[in-house]
Structures are given as C-alpha cells and as structure tokens.
Amino acid sequence: MYKRIFITGIGTGVGKTLTAACVTEALQADYWKPVQTGLEEGTDTETVRSLLSNPVSVCHKEVYCLREPASPHLAARLEQTRIDVERVLQQAEIVQPADRWLVAEGAGGLMVPLNEDVFTLDLVARLQAQVIIVAQNYLGSINHSLLTARVLQQSGIPVLGWIFSGDYHTNEDEVVQWSGYPRLGRIPQAARVDRAFVKEQAGKLTITGAH
Ligand SMILES: Nc1ncnc2c1ncn2[C@@H]1O[C@H](COP(=O)(O)OP(=O)(O)OP(=O)(O)O)[C@@H](O)[C@H]1O
Ligand SMILES: C[C@H](N)[C@H](N)CCCCCC(=O)O
Ligand SMILES: [Mg+2]
C-alpha cells in the first residue's frame, strides 16, 4: 500500500488547500498538486509552501499547470494539450520515496474530468491513495457530501474520513452519520490564515487509520 492521501472535496473552493496544508504539517508529509488550473491568483502549491512550518516537508512541482481557471479537461483543451494520466502516475512514483507520506490535492471534486476519458476519481483509484474528504457547510452541502461519499463507496476506494472547513454546523453530524465515515477534524473559519494557524490546526487533527 502506498503512503498516499488524496485530499478531495465536495466541490471547488471548499478549503481543500488549507486542509491539505494542515494534513501535510500534521504528518510531516510532502505535498503535491498534480494538476493545477487557474494561475492568475497563484497556485495551491505556492500557498501550501507558504503555510508549512516543519523543515522536512517538500512541495513537489505540478505535472500540469494550466492557465484557465476551469475544469482541467477544458483548461487543457484551451492550451491544445491533453492531460496524460499515465504521466501523472509515473511522476508520483518519481517524487515519492516509499517511506514518506504524500498528500495530493485534486482540482475541484471527484467527478471533475481530467480529459475526455478519465475523471479525478479514476486518478485517485490508480494512485491507490486513501482519501480525506473536505466538506463545507452551505445549503446543498449534505447532498454534495453524500454524493461524494457514495461514489467513493461504489468505487471501493478507502476513505479515512471527513475534515470540515469552517465553523460548526449540525449538518456536519448528518454527513458523518449518513456516510459512516468518521470526522477527523475541522478547520475553523479564520480571520487570518498563516503558518501559526496551520500549525495549531494540524495539532488538532486526528488522522487515524492511515497506513
Ligand atoms: N478555514 C478557513 N478560514 C479562512 N479562509 C478559508 C478557510 N478555508 C478556506 N478559506 C479560503 O477560502 C478560499 C477557497 O478555499 P481553497 O482555495 O482552499 O479551496 P479549494 O477547495 O482548495 O479549491 P480548488 O478546487 O481550487 O483547489 C481560499 O481563499 C481560502 O483561503
Ligand atoms: C479553478 C478552480 N479554482 C479549480 N482549480 C478548478 C475547479 C474545477 C471545477 C469543475 C467543475 O466541477 O465544474
Ligand atoms: Mg485548492
């Protein structure tokens, strides 16, 4: 079994990057965003690099960096290219030493296409990663959360549990109960997100079951 954790979310903009930084800090892991779309506001790799305190974590280079802030298959099409999943998988082998945890972050959620044939979900399965799902509370988030859980269950992908992004809401209990996946923690809404905040939140996560 690879020591790989894939951070997915119930959608885009739900707090995966900050959560990934906290998980990376907690495990003193390495971080990797293989496919980045949208470059104008900076990359997730730059964000995570700026938020880590420990001296051992490495933030690896992306395999694809695509300018358009869109689904990877569309952003790739605009640049007359195609995301080659085999290349992403080969790169995972290259960047990851066998004894180190790798925290990988997807672009958007699991049913985001990487090309005309492959979804992010398929990449997760091929990476043989264990999954952490980031959920945020909003009206409609129970549906998005349980759809995400269902597609992972149906794919037989191992799930470590949920990390909630933002302040507590009872919907969180619903999502845990209906899905059967445990709560690994919550990253509260912060007025200022910095290294100290990430370090503090990393110390509160309980990432059990990772092996
Ligand atoms: N707990 C928090 N406190 C304050 N701001 C937050 C928190 N979580 C996320 N944010 C902010 O919300 C915005 C969207 O979150 P983020 O970029 O992490 O989404 P994402 O799920 O990683 O999206 P993508 O699919 O683009 O990778 C960012 O500006 C981020 O800094
Ligand atoms: C640009 C954005 N921040 C993400 N990196 C890409 C999100 C793709 C979402 C696609 C979709 O679900 O419609
Ligand atoms: Mg992100």
TrEMBL record:
Its domain of life reads: Bacteria
Q: Which residues bind ATP?
A: 13-18, 44, 105-108, 189
Q: Which GO terms describe its molecular function?
A: ATP binding; dethiobiotin synthase activity; magnesium ion binding
A Pfam family found in this protein is AAA_26
**Cofactor needs:** Mg(2+)
Q: Which InterPro entries match?
A: DTB_synth_BioD, P-loop_NTPase
User: What's the protein called, per UniProt?
Assistant: ATP-dependent dethiobiotin synthetase BioD
UniProt lineage = Bacteria, Pseudomonadati, Bacteroidota, Chitinophagia, Chitinophagales
Q: Which gene encodes it?
A: bioD
